[in-house]
Every structure is written in C-alpha cells, then in structure tokens.
Specification:
By secondary structure, this protein is of the alpha/beta class. It has 10 helices and 16 strands. Bound molecules: S-adenosylmethionine.
C-alpha cells in the first residue's frame, strides 16, 4: 500500500537506467521525467532506493505538484499538503529551492512564503504558536518550473553519489552516478576483460565491480532519514540485510585499471580497497600507448583527459589518435569513451556505433560506443 510519492532527481540522460533499476527494486508506477523519476512511495522503497540506487542523486518525498502564478496560490497550495505526516512538533524544516521560467521568480520570496505556509499548517495540527526547530532537520526543497510547483522533503542528506569510498579523488574525477550509468549503457559482461586505461581515482573500475557483484552502493553509509524516528530503524536494518543477502561476490568479475600517473594508481588501489572490491580490481602504472587487447571478450570504458580541464586541446587530440591506433575493432570487444570534445571521432579515426548525450556535472559530453559489428571508418 502506498499513499505518497517518491522522486529521485538524476543527471540528465540517466532517467532510463534509473527507472529501470527502480522497477527491478520493486517500485510501482515508475514515471521517468526530465532529470528525475517519480514513483509510488512506501517506507520500504524510500529506504531501498537510498541504499541501492546507482544512478539517483537523492531520494525525496514528493509532497505535491500544483500550478501557481501568485504568492497566494503558492501559499495555499503548500498549506494544503500533509506536512504533519513527516515533520514532528520539534523538528527543523529549512527550505531551499529554485525558480525557472516562471512568474514566481524570486527564490528568497518563494522560500519565505513556503516556510510560512508550512508553519501555518503545522500550527493548526500541533496547536502551538512557535516552533523551536531543535529536532532532526526535514529539508524542504522546491522547484518552480514553468509556473508548476513541486515541493519535496529530502530523505538522503549528502548526495547519493557520495558512496563513501572516494574520500580521495584524482584531478577531474567522474561522478560516481555517471560512471555507474556508463557501465549500464555498455552492458558489461561478467566474463569480459573489463579495462579502464585512464582510471584516475578508479571510479569506473569501482562502480563496475560494485554492479557486477550486485553490491548496493549505499549499504555502508548513513542517510538523513535514518535519524528521523526510532520506529523506522527496523526497516533500515531489514533493508540493509536484504541488500547484503543479494550480493553475488563469486561472479569471477575482474577489472583492470591503468594510468600514466603513479599517484593516480595508488589512489585507485586505495579507493578500490575502501569500496571492498580490491580482490577483483588490479591497477598498474601504464600509458595508453602500451594498451594491448588480451582474451576473447573485452570491455573498455574510460574518460580520457580533455583539452579544457587536463590537457591542452592539441595534446588531447594527439591522445585520441593514439587511442584510435590501439583500441582496435575486434569481435567480442567494445570501447566506450566519454568526452565533451566534439572532434573526438575524427581524431580517433572511426565513427561510433552509438553515441549518447550525457552530462559530467555541468559539462555536456558525448558517450561514444564502439563495438565490432557496426564500426565504420570516418574520413
Ligand atoms: C579525466 S581523468 C580520469 C578520471 C577518472 N575516471 C576518475 O574518476 O578519477 C584522466 C586520467 O588519465 C590519465 N592519463 C593522462 N594521459 C594518459 C596516458 N597517455 N595514458 C594513460 N593515462 C593517462 C591522467 O593521469 C588522469 O588520471
């Protein structure tokens, strides 16, 4: 039984994998929208999505969605929602959010109106005139987009991409949620040689290893909603046990990482150990020019350096030419490369079989996917 809704915001381009994983977790009425996925809420799904989602940025209770073009409509719309279900008499409830392409354009004003409306609602329910707000915070988030208001309560705390294994990051690390989605899009086989030849801090290697062994990325960290009420503790415990019971540590999956920078190699090893996957992740100091395919099946996924952030444009293009010379089209092998560089295919020397638009933080990238059957030469 569900009588509330949940919503998971995600990076643009990850709505498909996120909707898919939520359905597999048992979520119902899964509705992918731009940059987020809405689904039916239950206490179990709230906890499960936090512990197990690889692609969501956070899990929020979707309190309501309604049209508003005036402060009065905003106030009445917010006041009508059942805040008392989630916010106790002593709890703090800070409000933040954003306004985009809407008549209501002032974030501080909307913030103040929403706060006032929640206070008014709770005053009536708790028969008090003043809220101390000394209890655990229930962070209210709003989005006013094209005159439609969405109001949410965050259950996650620190974003879900913070898995806990990457306290240390090399320069220009890729976001964990994006790395996990790249692994999903490339349909990594468990018996393939999995290789990241530009592994940096090892994010792609770790995310691939976690996914291959069905290890829930959030199983070892804490979440905002865990502190909300003692009654919920049993669900978190049960769902953690469930997640651990679904791990498949004996798949035989092996990942290899290479990097030209010895400091990155040390970092990647350290992060793999922190994530509990060092038994299936090997990292060596090696430049991509020395890359050689070994074995019948292979899957290469990487984000090489690109002009803007790590290398100047010319050396980045030189690197892509080197990659084109060593990532050879071969049946059973696939190569997937993410970069914002629009000239990548030309430098690499072949047109990708598929490409996808993805965002690495705010940077618009293309995910170029090469597999044997459909590779074609570009001039
Ligand atoms: C964009 S970073 C990769 C970040 C990584 N995905 C992560 O999450 O930390 C690119 C990496 O490529 C490495 N690199 C640069 N030139 C290289 C080369 N010729 N061969 C191998 N690695 C190289 C850099 O040392 C850097 O760690």
């Amino acid at each position: 039984m569900s009588d509330f809704q949940l919503v998971c915001p995600c990076l643009f381009g990850l709505e498909g994998p996120l909707a898919d994983e939520l359905r597999k977790m048992g979520a119902e009425n899964v509705d992918p929208q731009n940059g987020r996925v809405v689904f039916s809420g239950t206490d179990e799904m709230l906890v499960r999505a936090n512990l197990c989602s690889r692609y969501a940025e956070r899990v929020q209770v979707l309190m309501g969605v309604f049209p508003a073009q005036s402060f009065e409509e905003l106030f009445q719309g917010v006041k009508a929602l059942p805040w008392e279900r989630w916010i106790g008499k002593a709890d703090a409830f800070p409000v933040n959010g954003s306004c985009l392409s809407s008549k209501l354009a002032s974030v501080p004003d909307c913030q103040a109106i929403i706060k006032k409306a929640v206070v008014e609602r709770l005053k009536g329910k708790y028969s008090v005139s003043w809220f101390e707000e000394t209890g655990e915070p229930r962070r209210i988030h709003f989005l006013i987009l094209k005159d439609t208001v969405s109001v949410m309560i965050d259950t996650t705390g620190q974003g879900l991409h913070k898995r806990g294994y990457r306290a240390n990051a090399a320069e220009a690390p890729i976001r964990e949620t994006l790395a996990a989605a790249m692994v999903y899009f490339s349909r990594v086989r468990h018996d393939a040689n999995f290789i990241d030849p530009f592994c940096g801090s090892g994010t792609i290697l770790v995310e691939a290893a976690l996914a291959a062994q069905n290890i829930a990325p959030g199983v070892s960290r804490r979440f905002a909603a865990e502190n909300w009420d003692a009654a919920g503790t049993a669900i978190w415990k049960r769902e953690r046990e469930r997640a651990r019971s679904l791990e498949t540590r004996d798949t035989g999956f092996q990942a290899k990482g290479y990097d030209i920078d010895p400091a990155a190699v040390a970092l990647a090893r350290d992060n793999a150990a922190k994530a509990g996957v060092s038994d299936c992740v090997r990292v060596e100091n090696r430049g991509v020019a020395d890359f050689r395919e070994e074995g019948e099946y292979g899957c290469v996924i990487c984000n090489p350096p690109y002009g803007e952030r790590l290398l100047n444009l010319r050396s980045a293009e030189e690197l892509y030419r080197t990659m084109g010379g060593v990532f050879l089209p071969r049946r059973g092998w696939s190569y997937s490369i993410i970069t914002p560089d629009e000239t990548f295919e030309k430098c690499f020397g072949r047109k990708a079989a598929r490409r996808r638009k993805l965002y690495n933080g705010m940077i618009r990238c293309q995910y170029y996917m090469y597999f044997r059957e459909t590779d074609g030469r570009v001039g």
